[in-house]
Amino acid sequence: MEKIDGTFALEVLKVSCIPSEITELGTEGLRNIWHEAKLRGRGYSRASEIVEYAEKSVGLKDGSSVGRETVKWFAKEIMKLDEQLAWIENTLHKKCMEIPYAENILEIKGVGENILAGIVAEMGDISRFDDVKEIQKLSGMSLVACSSGKHKGQTKISHRGRKRLRYWLFQAAKSAVSHAEEFKELHVYYTTRADNPLKKMQSLIVIACKILRVIYTILKTGKDYDPQKMLKDIKRSKAALAAKAA
Fold first, then answer.
1. Of 11, 84, 103, 229, which is most buried with the most CB atoms under 10 A?
2. Are 123 and 135 in contact (CB under 8 A)?
3. Are 63 and 73 in contact (CB under 8 A)?
4. What is the pLDDT along the chain (246 residues), one digit of tens a residue?
5. Collapsing DSSP states into helix, strand and coil, what is residue 160?
6. pTM more than 0.85
7. Which residue ranges does the record assign to the Transposase IS116/IS110/IS902 C-terminal domain (predicted)?
8. CA of 169: how far to CAs of 55, 139, 245, in Å?
9. How far apart are CA 105 and CA 227, in angstroms?
10. Alpha helices in 5-58 (DSSP H)
């Protein structure tokens, strides 16, 4: 159990939260706690390791009774909050599917209900925008030149606008690059191309803006998502094109 707030850990902490109690329970005792909680997964294999750590523990023993009750209370509260969060996310996912053409947008691998709901909630009514550039400006992702007097600086995003919209678009970009092949390919191209290669963060910003344009277009027109259109930015050499055609 790597996370103290993980399901397996919390079930143990509700019952036994100090090393001596865990040692007394033993490997089978821990497994029985998880079995009674109807947990499944790899956690069972860590039971003996947890007991071994408990046996070697040199933690303080003073005030153990008060500490025990406090930890148990926190464990139960965390589990209650997890249940509430699960209910909220389930409700959010159902509401997300009420968005027109949501299923088309969710075809983008890596862009799930949470991300889509976050973006749409921050954008608001799509009909009030005449162009996607207005939303890009609203998100603070519009490009501005950092210059003063005779000094000409680099071009960066403005960071003016809705911070949460910018956050969700950036999450969409990171997730799409991790899960969607077309965006992985784009990210590699942007960061390795011979002419004006981008830094990783710059590439993610470009991809975030591209995802915004895709979402805007689908919400406006109801068109299906086409992964191949994402690759049009990639300029391939004649030799590479010939090899691909062959």
1. 11
2. yes
3. no
4. 556 668 888 888 888 778 888 888 899 999 998 988 888 887 788 888 888 888 888 665 665 677 778 888 888 898 899 899 989 888 888 888 888 899 999 999 999 999 999 999 898 888 899 999 999 989 888 765 444 455 454 556 667 778 999 999 999 999 999 999 999 999 999 999 988 899 999 899 999 999 999 999 999 999 999 998 888 878 754 444 344 444
5. coil
6. no
7. 103-187
8. 47, 9, 35
9. 11
10. 7-15, 19-36, 47-56
Q: How many other CB atoms sit within 10 Å of the CB of residue 201?
A: 10
User: CA of 134: how far to CAs of 85, 141, 153, 208, 214, in Å?
Assistant: 33, 10, 24, 15, 14
CA-only gyration radius of the chain, Å: 25
CB of 134 closer than 8 Å to CB of 198: no
Count CB atoms within 10 A of the CB of residue 18. Answer: 19
On whether the CB atoms of residues 138 and 174 are closer than 8 A, the answer is no
182 vs 109: CA distance, rounded Å: 10
* 154 membership: H or E segment, kind and range: strand 151-157
